[in-house]
Design a protein that fits this description.
By secondary structure, the chain is an alpha/beta fold. The strands form two sheets. The protein has a four-stranded parallel beta sheet, sandwiched between helices. Strands 1-2 form a two-stranded antiparallel ribbon.
Length: 168
């Protein structure tokens, strides 16, 4: 557990894309793996959501799961819609593109809530030329592989940011 102002604190991360079946569940699964690698699974918790409810209750896209499995990831969370209470439940709300950034920020009711919202690419280290995580849904295999490359890089960068911020 991290100690914030003398109290134990879980650091909670929420990854958000449009449908919560490709990018955000992949980010959730990759980040969970990174967190485990550093032995921080008792301190950092991850989840994902979508700004639409189109796929609520569904598993991630079969193509994303397949590409993830080849890299050793398990993407098995169920899609859910982002809700206002997520601002209270999470420390970081990390979106995949500008449209989702706008959608999530439009629900914020305070500067404190708005300040929790970040673009995933803010944490990129190797792929800094990308300003968003592209939606692979309508593309081919190379789109899913690119998304996984971008997410692996940004998840590692995010963890380094959190470790520094919370002195982990």
């Amino acid at each position: 557990m991290a100690f914030i102002e003398g109290k134990k604190k879980e650091i909670r991360l929420l990854f958000v894309c449009l449908g919560n079946i490709c990018r955000s569940p992949a980010a959730e699964g990759i980040m969970a793996t990174v967190v485990d690698k550093y032995g921080l699974q008792d301190t950092i918790k991850v989840d994902s959501a979508g700004t639409s409810a189109w796929h609520e209750g569904e598993l991630p896209d079969e193509r994303m799961r397949s590409h993830g499995e080849r890299r050793g990831y398990i993407f098995n969370s169920r899609a859910r819609k982002f809700k206002r209470s997520d601002f209270d439940d999470f420390d970081y709300i990390i979106v995949m593109d500008r449209q989702n950034l706008s959608n999530v920020r439009s629900l914020a009711t305070s500067k404190e809530q708005t300040d929790k919202v970040h673009m995933m690419t803010e944490f990129s280290r190797q792929y800094s030329l990308h300003d968003h995580i592209p939606d692979p849904y309508y593309g081919g295999a190379s789109g899913f592989e690119l998304v996984l490359d971008l997410l692996e890089d940004a998840c590692e960068g995010l963890l380094q940011t959190i470790k520094k911020e919370y002195s982990l």
